[in-house]
């Protein structure tokens, strides 16, 4: 936030618990991780609310702004790290009734250069996650840190059984199987951009996710191309085996990720749960795609 220009979200709010918080429409912070350097902490200027403590870049939401937009905007204003260099993974909300704070967990897309850019910060520092508790933290950040630490770097990965999901609705998909698969891919890209509430996908309702999506296609749909948002696995013969192999590879490479397979195939469900994946029904995914 530019300290010399008052925005429509600026101002203090007294929450239902009687505590004073900054941000008329709530506030958001960016918990940014660099696999090589740790997490980015900001030491707040002495004159700010809870000054001289360490917390996250962030600030008040403006009217009509999402927490992701606010967190990346504020981070760019305070650290010079542009929004396009950051990939969101998950978010968590602390709700005080008439005021809320959203922490957005994200990772860098490439190496970034940070610098203090306004008077609200005294210092920026990359800190190893296990050393965060050694700093004099903002009291609310200190309270939230254990749960945030547990989720650092963890992603929600959706492995989508393309043929099974497309075949769920009798909308004429069989006349153009490749076109139907490409349409599903494009709708999944919208889901990646919009994110999903955890409770809708049978996960912890305190979290929302910007998922990584792996679409598995077969038969006449095998030549569907991947996009920036959606990975595509083309199964030369057996789509179910390709899904099992994809799950196995994901679990081996990143064992802490949440991997969910979207399919209604009972036999396949048994095979992937053995590999450590959870299951989502096609209707759950399609309903969310309709909402997006």
From TrEMBL:
Q: Which CDD domains match?
A: NUDIX_Hydrolase (cd18877)
Q: Where are the transmembrane segments?
A: none
**Keyword annotations:** Hydrolase
Q: Which residues form the Nudix hydrolase domain?
A: 23-149
The UniProt entry, under Gene3D superfamilies, shows: Nucleoside Triphosphate Pyrophosphohydrolase
Q: What cofactor is this protein dependent on?
A: Mg(2+)
- Going by the entry's taxonomy, the superkingdom of the source organism is recorded as Bacteria
Answer whether the UniProt record assigns the keyword Hydrolase to this protein.
yes
InterPro entries noted in UniProt:
NUDIX_hydrolase-like_dom_sf (IPR015797), NUDIX_hydrolase_dom (IPR000086)
Write down the PROSITE patterns for this protein, in alphabetical order: NUDIX
User: What is the name of the protein in this document?
Assistant: NUDIX domain-containing protein
